């Protein structure tokens, strides 16, 4: 037991300083920034495809109730607004060349992180409520054509899915995204410090 304590104390007292060159750190940061940009583009593309699909429903299908059109219109408007917000955030991170201006990119990265936090904490609820109202109005006519068990199943699944997205999935995504952005910001702060030391 004493040997274990001795080894443990040696291990704790021994600290290894890992030196990473600014070029290696910049290469890692570039890879991570490109990953964020790619994910943002895929999110925007998914929202644009959703917008096009729902707009196609409005244009090409005949509905008997005004509630269906109202519901689909609310969904389309929500998706359009959310897509514009995502595009605005994408432009924040895509505008700057971080290899030329790491400090400017660092400040933009912090703005991007703040915007992400706002989107997934505050604006998300407006989006979720608008989608819920849109689906309720849309299902008003659609559910009339189905038997009672299909109606209950669709309503239960919709409530379950919205609850799952609003709680577990949203929180897990926010935590993962915050960790990624915090790590990236830390790397850019180190890169900026190394550039200052070299000057």
UniProtKB/TrEMBL annotation:
Could you list this entry's UniProt keywords, alphabetically sorted: Membrane, Transmembrane, Transmembrane helix
The UniProt transmembrane annotation reads: 40-63, 69-87, 123-140, 146-169
* Name the UniProt record assigns to this protein: Uncharacterized protein
Domain of life assignment: Bacteria
In which organism is this protein found?
Pedobacter frigoris
């Amino acid at each position: 037991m004493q040997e274990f304590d001795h080894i443990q104390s040696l291990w704790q007292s021994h600290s290894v300083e890992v030196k990473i060159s600014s070029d290696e750190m910049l290469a890692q940061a570039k890879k991570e920034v490109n990953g964020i940009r790619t994910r943002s583009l895929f999110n925007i593309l998914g929202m644009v495809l959703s917008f096009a699909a729902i707009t196609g429903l409005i244009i090409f299908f005949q509905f008997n109730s005004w509630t269906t059109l109202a519901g689909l219109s609310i969904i389309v408007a929500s998706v359009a607004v959310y897509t514009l917000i995502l595009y605005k955030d994408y432009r924040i991170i895509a505008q700057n060349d971080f290899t030329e201006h790491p400090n400017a990119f660092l400040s933009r990265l912090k703005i991007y992180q703040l915007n992400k936090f706002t989107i997934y904490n505050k604006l998300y609820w407006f989006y979720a409520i608008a989608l819920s109202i849109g689906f309720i109005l849309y299902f008003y006519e659609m559910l009339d054509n189905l038997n009672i068990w299909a109606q209950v199943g669709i309503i239960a699944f919709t409530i379950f899915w919205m609850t799952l997205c609003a709680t577990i999935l949203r929180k897990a995504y926010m935590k993962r995204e915050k960790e990624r952005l915090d790590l990236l910001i830390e790397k850019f702060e180190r890169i900026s410090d190394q550039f200052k030391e070299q000057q």
